[in-house]
Predict the structure.
Amino acid sequence: MYCSKCGQKIDDEAVTCPFCGVATKNFHAGQRQQQPMVFMNSGGGGGGGGASSSSSSSSAAAAGGYGGRTPYPIQSVGVHILLFLFTAGLGNIIYYFSVRSRQKQWHIMYG
């Protein structure tokens, strides 16, 4: 079969043209086919970086694993801990000054 928009030869059972994306005569407007989600792993974040490393980690990720690696960099855990400690410290400083100002007001009024 040929695409009605771009004229490229496409598979007879194709629902859309792989070249231009237009729907073919096999496409039913009321029926949407669920397309599988494919995630491409760039290979960054540990060992190697060549094409073979990227394709093997992509297949491991597609199979449900991470190829022996964590799904996120370990450094991000440390950054989250530091941010938590910083915001907790900042909250304590704000609380200290608000309590101190209330104590000053109390001493002025009652004391």
Q: What stands out?
A: The helical segments are 51-62, 75-110. The mean pLDDT is 73. Residues 84 and 90 are 10 Å apart (CA to CA).
